[in-house]
Records
---
Amino acid sequence: MSRFSESIPVRVYYEDTDHGGVVYYANYLKFMERGRTEFLRAIGLELDAIETEFGILFAVTEAHVRYQTPARFNDLLEVDTSLIEMRGARLAFTQTIYHQATRRQLCTATIRLACINRESAACRIPAPLIKILQNHLNKEHI
């Protein structure tokens, strides 16, 4: 199976930084959220349509982030996202944020999500979604 990933550009705005012009650590999680949303969009899945059709949402249950080099105001970054696990009610993604011009790796993360219903109870990922997601599962990481 070939490796599927989705990469998106993210510009660092002043609002993303601390007083010293360095990206505030929690904002990397926002960039990664955008990356996961665009990953799903790239494979034909829209989060609002998933909620409407199946009555489910995905909630982050765990985020393991390793920060290596800071990004700064006005940097252009690239967020690379790969699906690495899918089991029952769980998904896991690996995400890497690079400085676009230098390709220097800034941070890496493994993000785990739970499939939940509208009452916030864990539930299995619906079969039609599993079928689509399986085609984009990166088994190199397993």
---
Amino acid sequence: MEHRLSQRVQGKLGLLVYRRGMPVATGQIRDASKRGLFIATDYTDVQLNQILELEFRFPDKQEKQFRRLKAHVVRKSDEGIGLDFEGVDNDGFAISSLMHWLTRHHRSVSYFPVRRQQAY
């Protein structure tokens, strides 16, 4: 049985994944809470406890500002990466805004679509 400390909100929002300040992948938020989130991505060059940055913007807002959050990897799977906000410095307002947006929008939004890499 799974015990979460905060409620998960389902939703979809495209984002960019950064490692050491450089964009390395695209992804899509699938669910989030105030403590972390799960992103669907085909990015596999990541280790547990590694810190990543996530950049996104809300497409229906008048502002064109991108927001960036830091999180560390707590889970890896074939479908994506589980990330936790605990232990890294983040803007609480950005997390609250993300949760509010996901709660209000249940449609798929993908400015940075997840694409599977093809083997050559």
---
Amino acid sequence: MTPEPTEKLVLSDEEWRARLTPEAYAVLRGHGTERAFTGCFVGTHEPGTYVCAGCANPLFRSGEKFESGTGWPSFTRPVAEGAVRERVDRSHGMIRTEVLCARCDGHLGHVFPDGPPPTGQRYCMNSAALRHVPE
């Protein structure tokens, strides 16, 4: 499943609150982080595609998911170039790379340069920001 070019999804705060669960809203719109090992996708391995819980933009394939031991679902790369965007995150006294949905700008998690081959990347995502679409 390769993402089709789509327009940005821009909604008001009220529309986002109506569309999302409180937990998904806190993560996607409030840049929150779920507690380690509490997300529903931490240990799952069913074939399919992980999409944005806010706008259904395809983000990651299950074949790129790996067990990082960090307590969050981790992937080696996005489903396609342009599926996500990255920006510098200087919150909490650290400098990290935040990962956002390219369609709705929802906060998904962070990417770190300590993943396995072939990319060496660890896209550490919040389960609350994702929805799994089975193959």
